[in-house]
Amino acid sequence: MSNIPTLAHFIGGKAHPSTSTRLHDVTNPATQEVVARVPFATPEEVDHAVATAVAAFRTWRNTPLGQRMRIMLRFQHLLREHTAELAQLITREHGKTLPDAEGEVARGLEVVEHACSITSLQLGDIAENAATGVEVYNLLQPIGVGAGITAFNFPVMLPCFMFPLAIACGNTFILKPSEQDPSSTLRLVELAHEAGVPPGVIGVIHGGVEVAQQICDHPDIKALSFIGSTHVGTQIYQRASAAGKRVQSMMGAKNHCVILPDAPREQAINNLIGSAFGAAGQRCMANSVLVLVGQAASWLDEIVQKSAALKVGPGSDRSVDVGPLVNPAARQRVLRLIDSGVPDGATLLLDGRACSVPGYEKGNFVGPTIFSNVKPGMAIYDQEIFGPVLCVVCVDTLDEAIAFVNANPNGNGTSIFTSSGWAARKFQNEIDVGQVGINVPIPVPVAYFSFTGSRASKLGDLGPNGKQAISFWTQTKTVTARWYEPGEAGVGGVNTTISLK
Could you say which enzyme class this protein belongs to (predicted)? Predict the structure, then answer.
C-alpha cells in the first residue's frame, strides 16, 4: 500500500504536495486496484493557486501573440509525442479502450492546434473615419484568471476544450479535474509547461464539491467553464453567475439517432452501435436512443445481434470493444436503471447485467443492453443512463421522428442516417438540437467550430472551442479616438450634443 503514489497539485509551474489529510482513492475500473491517491485541496491551497495565477497574469497578458503561438506549437508537438503515455493513463483510471483513449487525445490535440492560430484569432476591428478625424476600434483583451471544472469521462479532451485557448488569449487558468481519473490531466498540464507555458499561468488543484464551490465564489476568478452532469452544472452556473462570473456550463444529454430506411444499412448500424456502446456509453455525445423510421424497424434484429457480439473486457486489451464503467457506484446506478425497464413497460432485447470477464471478476463491467418499446416517462428514457444501454423507438415518418426528438428537454446532439439530401436538410432545419450529425454518429465538431449544445444541455451563451471560445475568454474594449495636430486651434467652440463631428 505504501507504494501507491499520492498526487500533488500543480501550482507555480511545479508539483505542489498537499497538506490535506483528505485523500480519494483512484482505482483501475477493470480490477479495483488502487493506482493513486488524490488529495482534496484545503481552502488555503485553492487561495494560493489563485493568487499565483493572479500574479502570473500581470506579465502573461502582455506576452506577444507570436510568443504564445510558439508555445502552443511546441505543446501540440509534445502531445503527439506523448499520445501513447496519455492514453495509457486514461485507460488505467477511466477504463475506456486504448484505441478510444488515443482518439480522445487526438480530439484534444485538435484544440491545441487551433490555439496555434491565436495570432489571427485574437484580432479586433477598426473603422477609419467613423466621424471627421475619428476612428473606432475594438480590442479583444484577456479577462484575467479563468477556471475549468471537468468531468471524468474525457480527462484529456475536456481540459483541452478549456485551457489552451484561454491561456493563448492571455489569461491564466486554474483547472480542477475529476478526482476519479486525474493523472492524465495532470500529465497534460506538465506537458504544457514543458512546452514553455510560464510558471503560474496554469495550475491544477484537486478536490470535490467544496473546491468547486470555492472556485465559484472566488472573487479573483473572472470566468468559469464547466462540463459535466446537468444537476451539478446547474448549481455551478447559478452559484458562479451570482458571484459575477462569466460562465459556460455544458451539461447532460439524451441523444437520439434517427435512421431512415434509405440509409446505407451496414454503415448506419455499425456507426450507431459504436456510438451507443463505445466508452461503455460514458459519453455526453453517445447516441443512447435509436429512432427507427418506417421499414428501418426491420433492422432491429441485426442491431441486437451485432451488439451482442461486441467484446467486453479491460481497456488495455486492444481487441476489446467495451470497457468497464468508471467505478462500482456507476455500475450499480446503470444496473438499477436497467432493472426498471421491464417493470416500466419496455421490452428487454439484450441484457448485459450478468456480464463477467474471466480474470477481471472485480471489474465494473456491464455488457451492451438494448430495450425496445421505450416511451417518455420511463426512467431509462428520461434519465441519462451513462452506460452501455440503448433505447429503441419506432415511428412511421420523419416528421414523427423530428417531433419525438424535439419533445425531449435535452439538446446536446443528434444524428440522422439517410441517403436523401432532402431528408437531411429537413432534419437539420427543423430539429431543435445544438449539434447535428448527418451520417455521422457523434457530431462533435472539429475544434475550429464551437461546441454548441442547446436547451437543457447548456447554460450560458458561448460554448467551448471555435470563435465562441475566443469571445468567452476575452473582453471587448471599444476605443473611439481622435488625434489633433499639435498647436491646432479649436474650431466651432463648445459642442454640447452627443454627436461626433
Answer: oxidoreductase
